[in-house]
Specification:
Layout (H helix, E strand, L loop, with lengths): L1 E6 L7 H17 L4 E3 L17 H16 L5 E9 L8 E9 L2 E7 L23 E4 L2 E7 L19 H7 L4 E6 L7 H16 L3 E5 L1 E4 L2 E4 L3 E3 L5 E4 L6 E6 L14 H20 L4 E5 L3 H14 L4 E5 L7 H14 L2 E4 L3 H15 L6 H22 L2 E4 L3 H6 L12 E2 L6 H11 L8 H5 L19 H13 L4 H8 L2 H13 L1 H5 L27
Parallel strand pairs: 1-2, 2-3, 7-8, 8-9, 15-16, 15-18, 16-17, 18-19
Antiparallel strand pairs: 1-14, 3-4, 4-5, 6-7, 9-12, 10-11, 12-13
């Protein structure tokens, strides 16, 4: 059987636009001689649709569009994801479904069985699980259709499973001869390799070919890597879609193909590419073209400028230098060198007059109190005001430039450097920022070496260094990885680092900074556990280690 996989980048809520993409892909598949043309999970409504599914008008538009897609089909079949409804006494009555259509109508519907409710997934809020799974006979094949999570519960691969039920196993028991999985699987580094190994194992053990069609592109903070996969009945990967962008793949289940062995690039390459794609998708889907950011002369803002210039074009990036009396001449010169390397526009606006004015205005209230963090935050907040003013006047979206290490421990200022529409590297640890900077410079110096080599500093007081307030970043990041991503307990981290006071300090900073992160811009997700929707901790809580 010849299958066409249409790895598209839908927009959440844009039912009409997504329908047109599906129809265009179906025509391309038919022209290529495909028996079935396949699209990703919820491709008609976009993933994740969240509370849009609670709107009756939205559901009605999705149902209408699905009927219109079915109506134009000929003898070649189409499989696409959308929402469906059943009028039942209990539950939401809404399903995450795969529709199989040909000859002008919907011929078969398979609802999603395993409804994830962890990390960034909150599907149990909206969807009912399938009552059963079944196969559909078409052109001599018994097709078993599953939806994303349904295929991530194979007992032969996973030591610990989240669900007792295995929908794919039930499809096999019902006689499936071909497996098709439609997916919208958010990316984090390493997941593509894990996905390939899991699907390969399933096909090898069960002796069936598989077509796995995944969404590409980005939706707010989630990045989808595409990389749709086709496996033969021996578990050999024989076709791999492009990463992060739309693609069209033809797969003949009866044909012999050479094995695809290159699955995932190195960390820096993958994460950098994902961030570029995420930033580009965020702007395109919101209808914006231009960005503004503050350049400090540090490595974080330098990396964000590089990513923005590649994603949006240098002509659409404006940098603003905001020196204070504590800013070194080197930081300004390094920023200008980066600006020239990138070919972006810039302005320099000294902040000291505004900072002095604010401090003078507050003097009656500050009388008798020594200078402290308050005056440092005033500098950051003045910068935030100026950047947001430029954004308002010119329509450029403001990018925040803080990294995950800083966000974790609250080394950032609310309504100051946290101002902005998107946290480009807010899910990238400081130590990984350096890896990405080296990747940027792999073919020649883009980020000036002086920026990479200088000791990290907020430059908010004389001779300030980040290590005045924080442990060295390699140590800090090791603690944060264990706590945030590996979910290790306090005593486990102490056993590893042998420094109880340091671990206690860092974890306390993480917990106390939850209120800041709750007010932060959305962060492009590239790790297994990012701040935001996928990590929900109470602001007010009394649990202590």
């Amino acid at each position: 059987m010849k299958l066409a996989l249409c790895q598209i980048d839908p927009t959440v809520g844009d039912v009409y636009g997504n329908k047109e993409k599906i129809l265009a892909g179906y025509r391309q598949g038919v022209d290529a001689g495909a028996d079935i043309v396949i699209f990703p999970e919820l491709s008609l409504v976009g993933y994740p649709p969240l509370d849009l599914v609670e709107k009756k008008g939205f559901r009605e538009e999705a149902h209408k569009a699905a009927r219109e897609i079915a109506a134009v089909t000929g003898s070649a079949a189409i499989i696409f994801g959308t929402i469906t409804e059943l009028n039942e006494e209990f539950g939401t009555n809404i399903y995450n479904s795969a529709l199989l259509c040909f000859d002008g109508k919907v011929q078969f519907i398979q609802n999603k069985t395993l409804i994830p409710n962890y990390d960034v997934f909150d599907e149990m809020r909206y969807f009912e699980c399938a009552k059963d799974v079944d196969i559909f006979e078409y052109r001599g094949e018994k097709i078993g259709i599953s939806i994303c999570e349904d295929i991530w519960n194979d007992k032969d691969f996973w030591k610990h499973r989240l669900y007792e039920n295995d929908p794919v196993e039930r499809l096999l028991h019902k006689g499936a001869t071909l497996l098709i999985n439609i997916s919208a699987s958010p990316y984090s580094f390493g997941k593509r390799t894990e996905r390939k190994n899991m699907l390969s194992s399933l096909c090898r053990v069960d002796g069936l070919p598989l077509a796995y069609c995944c969404t590409a592109g980005a939706q707010t903070d989630l990045i989808f890597d595409g990389a749709s996969m086709c496996f033969d009945s021996n578990g050999k990967l024989v076709a791999l879609g492009k990463s992060y962008i739309e693609d069209f793949i033809l797969f003949d289940t009866k044909k012999d193909y050479p094995e695809v062995t290159c699955i995932e690039g190195g960390f820096a390459e993958e994460v950098y590419t994902a961030l570029v794609r995420g930033l580009k998708g965020y702007f395109q889907k919101l209808g914006f073209k231009k960005a503004v950011l503050g350049l400090s002369g540090g490595i974080d803002s330098a990396l964000v400028a590089v990513i923005a210039a590649e994603a949006l074009g240098a002509e659409n990036i404006h940098a603003i230098l905001l020196p204070s009396k504590y800013s070194s001449r080197g930081s300004i010169d390094d920023s200008i060198a980066l600006i020239h390397n990138l070919g972006i526009s810039y302005a320099e606006i000294p902040i000291q007059p505004a900072v002095d004015s604010v401090i003078d205005s507050m003097q009656p209230e500050f009388a008798g109190k020594p200078q402290d963090l308050t005056e440092e935050n005033i500098q950051s907040r003045v910068r935030g005001i100026l950047l947001m003013s430029y954004s308002n006047k010119h329509g450029n979206l403001l990018l925040t430039t803080g990294n995950k290490s800083e966000m974790s421990v609250g080394y950032c200022t609310l309504y100051g450097d946290m101002c902005g529409a998107l946290g480009v590297i807010a899910d990238v640890y400081k130590t990984d920022v350096y890896k990405l900077a080296d990747y940027v410079n792999r073919n020649g110096e883009v980020i000036p070496r002086a920026i990479i080599d200088k000791a990290p500093s907020a430059e908010l007081r004389p001779d300030q260094k980040d290590e005045d307030s924080l442990p060295p970043y390699p140590v800090l990041d090791s603690i944060l990885r264990m706590y945030l991503e590996e979910n290790k307990e306090y005593y486990e981290i102490v056993d590893t680092l042998r420094d109880e006071l340091l671990v206690r300090k860092v974890l306390r900073l993480v917990d106390l900074s939850e209120f800041k992160r709750r007010q932060a811009a959305p962060a492009l997700r590239v790790s297994y556990k990012a701040f935001g929707y996928g990590r929900r901790y109470p602001l007010v809580q009394g649990w202590r280690r």
